[in-house]
Design brief:
Four Helix Bundle (Hemerythrin (Met), subunit A); mainly alpha; globular; three-stranded antiparallel sheet; Arc Repressor Mutant, subunit A; four-stranded antiparallel sheet; 15 helices; about 350 residues
Length: about 350
Amino acid sequence: MPGEARPEDEHAAPVGASPRLHARILQMLRRRILDGSLPGAARLMESPLALELGVSRAPVRQALAALAAEGLIRRAQGRGFVVVSGGLVAEPPGLVRIDAAGHDRTGLDPALTVKPSWQPIYDAVEKAIVERISVAGWRIVEVDLARHFGVSRTIAREVMARLHQRGLVKRDDKSRWYAPALTADYISELYELRWTLEPLALLQASERAPPALIRRMHASLEDAIARAASLTGRELDALEAELHVELLRHCTNRTLLEALRLYQSLLVAHTFLYDASSSQFPSEPFLPEHMEVVEHLVSGDVTGAAQALAKHLRGACARAIARVDVIARGLEVRDLPYMYRLDKLALSISRD
């Protein structure tokens, strides 16, 4: 059963940022500007960037000052900076790869990758949730999570906040964290919101998305369709992310993007779902559906692309329900020291 709260360990070893953190942030932002992932006129704010990266504001402030000195950004009216359109010509840009969870998987030197102290624990907890929500809903106890991983409550709290931001966990009426089960009704609700919101985001994103991104998406899909029967779950996950995350993040309506991030929680589970139900489809049905969206974008038919995206998501909803049903019937999972199956908790309470 869930443990009781205990005082934080004040003597826990701090997990601090590695040396030259500002230089690593500078390198990451510079690459995103040069390859078009951060387009001209995009606004960069010190506090939101620090929150996104899980670092303090000081190294972000240094990185932004260095980018301004390079001419890649300039001070905005009011607060923050904006990316300068047609910035400096620099080294050939690398490809930016965003996974379905919204994480940047760009092929950068690992030494330049910013890894906040909560990240390894977040990855482990996210994986545990994704592997279990096909079967049932789960209570997650913050104090037990901190105890299990040997970290402070502050880090555990940050992990839960990030999971909430990704839509993987919610709070019940007593403010307790839980990961809802992927029931057919819940999947349908998520997809209904997605096929309503994502086409709207696409209409805006298409105006600002770099043409090189559209060409890359088309080439990626051509390659994937040619070898559809042998694609791995991770490769399918990356293709999903190109359309639903990387392209749509060029939408200028930030509130819409925040809503999408919450309702796209199923994207986080896609690699697991694809691998666990690989025998269900001879080749992945979304590939030609994505290609239809991209071909409309290539031809300049943005309205057609938005309609094709909505049609794709309606079909994907039925497939997601079928996948989860197959997985739930054949998967055995157990409680973890910080995760407790909700239906068992309810049964235990009813017997008391």
